[in-house]
Every structure is written in structure tokens, then in C-alpha cells.
Specification:
Blueprint lengths: L1 H29 L6 E5 L6 H17 L3 E5 L6 H8 L7 E6 H8 L8 H4 E9 L3 E4 L8 H10 L5 E4 L5 H13 L4 E4 L3 H9 L5 E4 L1 H10 L3 E5 L27 E7 L4 H14 L3 H9 L3 E4 L2 H22 L5
Parallel strand pairs: 1-2, 1-3, 6-7, 6-8
Antiparallel strand pairs: 3-10, 4-10, 4-11, 5-8, 5-9
Helix pairs in contact: 2-10, 4-12, 7-12
Length: 328
């Protein structure tokens, strides 16, 4: 009987402690935010990620009535900034602008000082952007079907460029080759600018490129856009079909950007941020600002974003394994 009473007392005490902790957490969350918020961009100022962060930071600050300060912490292909946020207090005052590269790093087994899926929690998908499939000047093809036919008819002579080994543009190319049932040699460059020059010079057969920096060359005729990689059309290239429409059914690659925060951040805080940002993303002025950056505004729930990240990791892991991609 004494043992039973003691066990009951311990259970009651445990429940009381849990209730106190939950009450404290709820009290802190209801007070959120009561100070400025840091939005960490793991890249240098002035780039696409930085511009996207600043586009949503200003309206979010107005809605939360607290400053949202964008901090650039570049290095290690985004790893330094991500590690900083992963180790921050889980209170909703430190956010990270995440992108598809984070999912790719996990898929490739890159050694990180943090666990992207366990140490960070998704808040919302801000938007995504397609790649544009560009043919090199050395081949005369005008469609995805013709490119696939060219690749099949020229085994061992086809190559494609990317902005680096393990980059999303390489994985898009590897997925294309795999789904098309042909072969091509990957040629990594230090960035899209170098790969574009190689395309224009005839050293590459094709490449998947960010559409914004490629648009001037496409419109001038220096580059030939065959298709966009998303399942839906791209407003800046309304006459350009999707890869899915033009010969490779099911192909869909749309690099994304979103916000995440440290794991164990109170659910009510994440819900507050998600709700405010979801409303911001429906605003025509914000959608237009993002569009000028090449990004199509999205939104959705935190669970939706978490599902996208998980599915991307699974997909790119298989592509990387099939293509035997190794990143040091």
C-alpha cells in the first residue's frame, strides 16, 4: 500500500511539473513577440535569398509590431547560417531562410554540424521558381522531344552543365537524363554565369538554369529556352512549355524557399508566424515583388512545408545514388 501511495504521489507531482512547464510555455508564447526577431540569411547580401528575406521581413515586422532584422551569415554553402539558427533558443526569435539546397545536402549525406530535419522546424513555404532548360548553341533542337532524341542518337557525346557538383541544377539534369532513358556527362562550373558562357560557346549540350539571370540572353536569342522545369507554366516565359508538357511526363523540379526555426519552438508561436506570413503572401504587391525575383509566392501550412522537404530529400537521395554523386 505504501508503495502504491508513493507511486501515486510521484505521478501527481510529475503531472503538476508538466502542467507548470506547459503553463509557462503558453504564457511566454502569448507574449510573443516582445522583442525584435532575427531572420538569418545563410548567404551574402544582395543575392536572391537575401532579397526574398527582405521582401517578407518588412511586412512581417508591421504585422508583429516588432523589428524583423535580416542578418547575413554566409559560408559553407549555407551551413554556417543554418547551424547558427539550429543552435539558437527555440523561442521564435531566430528564423532561417531555407531553400532546396538544405534538402539536397541531407539527400547527398553532406556532413553537417546539425540535423536539418531534427534541429529545425518548418514554418511556411514562401515560394518556388522553375529552372529553364536551355540548349547549347552547338545543337539544333527546338523542343524537349528533339533534345531527348539528340541525346539518344549521340551516346558518349552529350554533356550538361550545372552551377556545381551536388547543386540542384545538377540534380535536375540527372533526373532529366534518367527519366529520358539516355546518358549525358555532367560538367560542373563555379556558378551559372560560367555554365551559361559554356552553353553560348557550344561546349555544353544543355543545362538547367535559374531563369532570372538567363532571361536577357533568352530574349536576345543568345540562349534557346526549350522548356521550364515546373509542372505549370512560368509567367516570364509564357510561350515556353513545361518539360512535363513537351515530352517528359511527370518531370517537375521547382527549387523552393521557405522559413524554418529551431525545433521545440512552441506550436502557438509557429502558428502565429505561419498565419501572418500566409496572409502576407496573398498580397498582390508582395507577389509582384517576389515575381520580379523569379519566385512564385506559395504559402500553405507548416505541415505542407514539412512534407515537401521530406519528399524532396527522398527523391534527391535516389537521384544522387543512381548518378553516383559524391560531395566532399
Amino acid at each position: 500500500m505504501r508503495a502504491f501511495i508513493k507511486k501515486t504521489q510521484e505521478s501527481v507531482i510529475g503531472l503538476l511539473v508538466l502542467a507548470i512547464l506547459l503553463t509557462c510555455g503558453m504564457a511566454q508564447a502569448s507574449d510573443y513577440p516582445n522583442k525584435s526577431i532575427r531572420l538569418v540569411v545563410p548567404y551574402t547580401p544582395g543575392g536572391p535569398a537575401d532579397s526574398i528575406a527582405r521582401t517578407v521581413a518588412e511586412p512581417l515586422a508591421i504585422k508583429l509590431k516588432q523589428a524583423v532584422v535580416v542578418e547575413n551569415k554566409p559560408g559553407a554553402s549555407g551551413g554556417i547560417g543554418a547551424a547558427f539558427v539550429a543552435s539558437a533558443a527555440p523561442d521564435g526569435y531566430t528564423l532561417l531562410l531555407s531553400n532546396i539546397s538544405d534538402a539536397v545536402a541531407v539527400a547527398l549525406g553532406v556532413k553537417l554540424t546539425y540535423d536539418f530535419q531534427k534541429d529545425l522546424t518548418p514554418i511556411i513555404l514562401l515560394g518556388d521558381t522553375p529552372f529553364v532548360l536551355i540548349a547549347g548553341s552547338g545543337i539544333k533542337v527546338s523542343s524537349v522531344k528533339e533534345l531527348i532524341e539528340f541525346c539518344k542518337n549521340n551516346p558518349g557525346k552529350v554533356n550538361f552543365g550545372s552551377s556545381g557538383t551536388g547543386s540542384a541544377s545538377q540534380l535536375a539534369g540527372e533526373l532529366f537524363v534518367s527519366m529520358a532513358g539516355c546518358s549525358a556527362t555532367h560538367v560542373p562550373y563555379k556558378g551559372q554565369a560560367d555554365a551559361t558562357m559554356a552553353l553560348m560557346g557550344g561546349q555544353l549540350t544543355f543545362a538547367f538554369a535559374n531563369p532570372v539571370p538567363a532571361l536577357p540572353q533568352i530574349k536576345s536569342g543568345a540562349l534557346r529556352a526549350l522548356a521550364v522545369s515546373s509542372k505549370t507554366s512560368y509567367r516570364s516565359l509564357p510561350d515556353t512549355p513545361t518539360v512535363n508538357q513537351d515530352g517528359l511526363v511527370g518531370f517537375d523540379v521547382s527549387p523552393w524557399f521557405g522559413l524554418v526555426t529551431p525545433a521545440k519552438t512552441p506550436a502557438v508561436v509557429i502558428a502565429r508566424l505561419q498565419n501572418e506570413l500566409a496572409e502576407i503572401l496573398t498580397r498582390p504587391d508582395i507577389q509582384e515583388k517576389l515575381f520580379r525575383l523569379g519566385v512564385q509566392a506559395k504559402g500553405g501550412s507548416s505541415a505542407d512545408f514539412a512534407s515537401l522537404i521530406a519528399s524532396d530529400i527522398t527523391r534527391w537521395k535516389k537521384v544522387a545514388q543512381d548518378a553516383k554523386i559524391k560531395v566532399e
